[in-house]
Amino acid sequence: MPQVALTYSSSKVDGLTASTNNQPSVVGEGWDLQSGGFIERRYRSCADDGVTPKTGDLCWAYDNATVTLACKASELIRDDGTKVEKLTSTTNGDNDGEHWKLTTIDGTQYFFGLNRLPGWTSGKPETASAWTVPVYGDDSGEPCNAQDWCRQAWRWNLDYVVDPNGNAATYWYSKESNNYNRKLLTVTAYDRSGYAQRSDTLFTVQTPARAAFGMAERCLPDGNFDCAESKFTTANATKWPDTPADLNCPSTCTGKRSPSFWTRKRLTGVTTQMYSGSGTDYADKVSPAMVSDLNYGYDTAGNITSITDKANTTDSQCFQYDYLRRLTEAWAQGSEGCATTPAQSVVGGPAPYWTSFGNDVTGNRTSEVRHAASGDTSRTYSYPAAGASRPHGVTAISGGDAYTYSSGSQFGVF
Fold first, then answer.
1. Taking a C-beta distance cutoff of 8 angstroms, is the pair 254, 270 a contact?
2. pLDDT band at residue 33, thresholds of 50, 70 and 90?
3. How far is CA 315 from the centre of its chain?
4. Who has greater pLDDT, 259 or 282?
5. Could you tell me how far CA 309 lies from the centroid of its own chain?
6. Is the CB of residue 304 less than 8 Å from the CB of residue 297?
7. Which residue among 66, 69, 95, 285 sits deepest, i.e. has the most Cβ atoms within 10 Å of its Cβ?
8. What average pLDDT does the chain have?
């Protein structure tokens, strides 16, 4: 089963430019919340598809898909024994109910965009796992060509998993909607983003445990401003520093010529819950105490600066970054909040550590220092000489492994 996890990669920050969508994830710059997985399809701007007059609408390009699952992302191809099935006829907002089923070699089945889970009946909740956008089929033989345009899914989120023993897990989402001026005129709704709500079970029984995700506005509140959703306007845009208020179209608008994809939410907590044993009640606590109660802190740039688990004993993970928003310090404290500067005197908690990282101007990690009361342990990273191939491929780590690469950039450890 996919695991809920927070992952960090400094390489996600390198090479970002003003011409790309650089909004950080709901966790922060360089971080990702791995709460399941998803499949995405890319569409083409109609302006690049030979449509005249040129508009900002999306057109069918070709049948493509990429999959992100278990912290791995790749084109959706059958290269590892996984059986890939593109299915239709569910009810998920897509014009023909398109969704996906992947079956791995161990027999585990993964469903993406199913929306109405097994056992669903009228009035039951839906997972909101398929996010759609208007797409034109301008060429003969393309989907929706007969009706000019239709709603096509651009992302199918993982919402149902069954392992070979029949154990099941489900994943539930909330959509974020927006509008734009289709064909420059008609205000038309689409799903611009969304976020995970919880990991749960089916309708027939109550799951013994689940994870719930807390979300809030990506906003900077103060004594005079409460960050209510209704206050997200261009006049208050500075309160949402990494959210494009000028692209927001809640109902009516002009000049929004193409769909845009971004979120107004940030992660505030992950809470694991246990079934109380009666009805539909879930409790944050099990005897003798809560399993976990994660709370997140951010700086004004959107970097995650702390993860505090208030369950049982307070345990804070603290992070600092350089001017390019790359991780430079990480340490644990046995108290809520983080010190301005890490030191052995503040390190604590159930699993105390303090690690410092060095990076060069090209984004390569150059050093790692693990601090301890008994002394520091340092490691340095080596890379190819200037002008050589794979300039960012680490070749050796002092006191550890050496790495070699094949022509396909796969590496071996020696």
1. no
2. confident
3. 24
4. 259
5. 21
6. yes
7. 69
8. 86
